[in-house]
Amino acid sequence: MLQTIRRALTSSAGRAFLELLLVILLGVVFNADGAFFKVGTHRDTLRQASTYGILACGMTLVIITGGIDLSVGSILAVSSVSFSLLMMHMDWPWWLAVIACLVLGSALGSASGALVSNAKLQPFIATLAMMTFARGVAKYITGGQKISTYVTQGDKVIIKELPQIFKFIDSRILGGDLSIVSVIFLVCFLAAWLFLARHRWGRELYSIGGNEEAARLSGVPVRMAKFLAYTFSGLMCAVAGIAQAAQETQGDPEAGAGYELTAIAMVVIGGTSLAGGRGSMGLTLLGILTIGYLQKILSINAVPEAGRLMITGIIIVLAVLTQKRRTK
Amino acid sequence: MKSILKFALCAVLLCFLATMPTFAAGRTYVIGMSQCNLGEPWRVQMNADIKREADKHPEIKMVFKDAQNDVLQQRAQVEEFVSAKIDLLIISPKEAQPLAEPVSKAMAAGIPVIVLDRDIIGENYTEFIGADNVKIGKAVGQWLVKNYGGKGAKVVEIMGLQTSTPGQDRHNGFVDAIKGSDLNVIFRADAKWLEPDARKEMESALARFDKIDIVYGHNDPSAHGAYLAAQAVGREKDMVFVGIDSLPQEGVAYVKQGILNATFQYPTGGDVAIVQALKIFAGAKVEKRIVLGSRLFSKANVDAGGEAIK
User: Which of A206, A239, A294, B252 has minimal Cβ neighbours within 10 Å of its Cβ?
Assistant: First the structure.
């Protein structure tokens, strides 16, 4: 019995769970006059972590191959402004706009994928280039202004009604206790988990991350598997971009700047190795919740910005150190 | 060989002749505009204001450059403008210290310089045009005290980046104005001018306090983000939302839609810069500093174009 507990605690899932518990304990102690105990606080925590979480789903797959995707924040912005433009200014039917954005995001992701798997560029460089390029695309589409319901047509200015789909994505179900954005995140999470844990493609990703040469020799379609990993990440960015647009009620070409780092931190804190080959979606979920709760607790206590940055930095180091012991 | 030379000579002469009519019809003036960063809607608006005003004067030819938030790039752009011998330079500098030197070189080359929005170190420019954030922050505070004072109102302040001067000024002016009143700031957070961050911070404030009467956002997107947070829990009707900047497609549109109760304009000065440039071309003497006035847009006056604040 004791041994089972000890084994559970020393597994990477156990450690990641412990981290999350510690952060939640932090919230129980610094509960900001009871604000931490309200249902709404937890609902909002999950909603706020959802956008990052969707990005982290794609990021996990890429990181398991030993790669990295720096372009997620920029592709999110492209998707967010395209969705707003198609819905608010061009009045497309919502499903067509959603499909267009998903295709666009996947295309940008697959471009990085092709650069990595076919042109053999370092993932860091390839996705850094995509991060820059996609940000340019977002600014080009919008002309540098936010896309909102405030539409200029020639000299006339009209304020349009916010499209229903925006209202729907930003609404809540289960008596107001669960945001639709969080549901979207859970669906993405489930898809990523199925691929990674239950599908052959997932096993291929692990074997590529473990030893790419060995994987190739044992008949794994390395190029295709990697290409698809980046494409999936691009798809996740598109989903996150739509969620972002709905929550902001506008398309901001500057949206998502710096989100890539939060998404990477979530994956790594969970215990997925940046060297590739090790990790899982379950770990990423724990990482997402850990960072999500940390941000919320710092926010409800109105901790000044300088303090927040220092505390977040320290917690990231502590979390990764706990994970590191395992590899002895 | 000779024929080629002759041809070239003729071509050059023809070019001269082609440009003659413009000389005859009066001079054209080339104005260079060095914008520090077009990543912010407010600065895009500044360029648009310049362009709109310049388009009214056919003798003005505008050249716009964007330094993409890079001091050295902006420095290089100023040098390019100087070597292109433009007639006047408008610069909205990224930083005060590093751009003082290139600007003074432009002045030395006989190019008048109008500095927009952010100041530079020293006095070696023709004219500075900018608004005063402390004054605007103060105006927000005074307006709130006048309209909502006397009831012990509880205020949430969603601040702009507190390591930036505009963020500090909009905070300090506000604090100064509500001193001695019964307005009580119960929650302050730095949302770094970003709407998603503002929404997150406001959600925390809502979770913590059951009674919030006033939300002051240091820019309109912050106030809008706070509104969305309050709306999500059905509490937006209990609160007054006030923002700053008043871009036509942001703050002013929010007031028209009934999202914000008021927005205070932080003018770009782009149009004023062109008016002043024409004065300089005409040889008139201009003031060293122009502090732009602000305007208040509220539900009552937004359709009439707002009212000026003294």
Answer: A206
Partner A contacted by B49 (CB < 8 A) = no
CA distance A176 to chain B (A): 9
Q: What are the structural domain ranges in chain A?
A: 14-327
Of B38, B207, B224, the CB nearest to A38: B207
B308 Cβ neighbours under 8 A, 6+ residues apart? B293, B294, B295, B296
The closest CB to that of B162, out of A48, A299, A305, belongs to A305
Nearest partner of A138 among A222, A75, A53, A221, judged by Cα: A75
Q: Is the CB of residue B51 less than 8 Å away from at least one CB of chain A?
A: no
Question: What is the Cα–Cα distance from A86 to A103, expressed in whole angstroms?
Answer: 14
Homologous superfamily assigned to B133-266+299-308: Response regulator (3.40.50.2300)
Query: ipTM of this model?
Result: 0.76
- Alpha-carbon gap: A106 to the closest alpha carbon of chain B (Å): 24
Name the strands in the sheet holding B127-131, side by side, starting at the edge strand that comes first in the sequence: B60-66, B29-35, B88-92, B113-116, B127-131, B289-292
**Separation of alpha carbons A233 and A75, rounded Å:** 10
Q: Tell me the pLDDT of chain A (328 aa) as tens digits.
A: 777 777 777 778 888 888 888 888 888 888 878 788 888 888 888 988 999 999 999 999 999 999 999 999 999 999 999 999 999 988 899 999 999 999 999 999 999 999 999 999 999 999 999 999 999 999 999 887 888 888 877 777 788 888 889 989 888 888 778 889 999 999 999 999 999 999 999 999 999 998 888 988 998 999 999 999 999 999 999 999 999 999 988 888 989 988 999 999 999 998 888 888 889 999 999 999 999 999 889 888 888 888 888 988 988 888 888 776 555 4
Using the Cβ of B208 and the Cβ atoms of chain A, whether some distance falls under 8 Å is answered with yes
CATH number for the region A14-327 comes to: 1.10.3470
- Domain B24-125 identical in fold to domain B133-266+299-308: yes
Q: Where are the domains of chain B?
A: 24-125, 133-266+299-308
- Give, as one character, the DSSP assignment of residue A195: I
